[in-house]
Every structure is written in C-alpha cells, then in structure tokens.
Amino acid sequence: MQFSYLNNIEIFEFFIEYKMILHFCEDIEKDFTNLNPEESLHTIKVLRKKIGDKLFIINGKGMFCEAEIINDNQKRCEIKILNRIFKENLRSYKIHIAIAPTKNIERFEWFVEKAVEIGIDEITPLLTTHSERKILKEERIEKIILSTIKQAQEFNMPVLNPMIEFNKFITNKFTGQKFIAHCYNDEKKILKDVYQKNNDVVILIGPEGDFSEKEVNLAIKNLYNTVSLGNTRLRTETAGIVACNTISIINQ
Questions:
Q1: Final residue of a structural domain among 29, 51, 86
Q2: Same structural domain for residues 161 and 78?
Q3: Which of 11, 188, 191, 201 is the most exposed, having the fewest neighbouring CB atoms within 10 Å of its CB?
Q4: pLDDT in tens, 150-209
Q5: pTM of the entire structure?
Q6: In sequence order, what are the residues at sequence separation of 6 or more whose Cβ sits closer than 8 angstroms to the Cβ of residue 147?
Q7: Which domain does 197 fall in, by range?
Q8: Domain final position from 54, 86, 118
C-alpha cells in the first residue's frame, strides 16, 4: 500500500488537477472500510457514484486517500483504499477561540464556518454571566465544521469542545498567550500589537452583553491579558472572526 508525504504545493497541485470533491471517513487506515450512512447517501444518491468510481477521502486527522467504491449501497457504501497521503501540520502555532454562543444561533454558526475557513484549531463555547444561549446542539456544529473543511479542502478537523462555564474554563492550564477581549473603558492594547508570532494563543470572546466586570477581573487574576480588537464595537461573532483572522495574518 502506497503511503506518501507531500508538501503544501504538491497537495494544492493535486487538488487542482483532479478538481476534487472531498468525502469524509474516520477509518481510512484499513484497506477496506465503509462510509457512514450520511456520507453513503450523499455519495450514492446525490452524486450518483457507483461501483468502480473513485473517491477522495479525508479523515480529519491529516490523512487523505484515494479510494474505489466496491459496494454502492446507499446506507453503507463500501470502499477499497488505493493510496494514502499524509499532510503534516506545518503551522508553528495553534488558535483557540473560547466564545459565548449568540442568542441567534445562525450568527454563531456563521462564526464557526468562517473561523474554520480562516484556520482555527479549537473552539470552546463559553457559558458566561450574560449569556443568552445556554444550550448548544454540538452535533449540528460538528456537521458545519465537517462541511467547511471539505469545502476548504483542509485535512485537519478543528476540535469543538463541550460548552463550559467561564469560571471553570479560565482555570484550565494553557501554555501559550492568553487574552480576553472586552468593551469596558480601560487601558487595553490592540491584539495585533501584543500577540507574539508563532505562539499558541487562546482568546476569550464574550456574549452580546459582554463579559461581566467580575469575569474580566477573574480572567486577569488567571493571567489573561485584556485586549481590544479595534476602534468599533463588534458583534460577538464578528469579534471571533477578527481575532482569528488577526492571528492568522500575523503568522503568514
């Protein structure tokens, strides 16, 4: 079984040559496996693939493979792995955004989609004092993440953590830089001026009503630095995108 390592340029050229539609399957290290029911239905019924057709598949953990359909069952599409490519994660930093989900769930979903497109490693939904949304359907968010990495032709799937209370989250150990963005009138530096390139980073983004002053002070006590994301007051989902994009651009 062929197993190769390609650099980013080679992978990009490979994508362009084959104009690939990516599929997803967690278990592609075996020579024979099957797609889950949702992927099977989409592949066979919507895309009209049949026995003998080739598929390009990712597992969300850096591996990509070319496969052949050997059973075109709509509920359990069986495939044979022909070759594999492993894309090493060459980034020297990781972006972790901990954010309070918005009352309008579509806005939070928009944040997730765009953050994944930009390049994010970890998302943690926060439950804060002023949170208006206290329940999150993680399965739906996972589907958005999966759909986005396939569209963006990314090999690695960002981690979506369960929702956690703010007070518990900030006591977690984290070795990178730690920031909390808020709108209170105190002396704050702009994120782009204090983030150090090539460092892991976690950034806290509050709900529509912002973090409470008590939460900000608690974050500071836990060695979070307060930052501003610009001169205008941003919506929660916009702030998350700005924070993610700022770190991404600095590291380019």
A1: 86
A2: no
A3: 11
A4: 888 888 899 999 999 999 999 999 989 999 999 888 788 999 999 999 999 999 999 999
A5: 0.86
A6: none
A7: 95-250
A8: 86
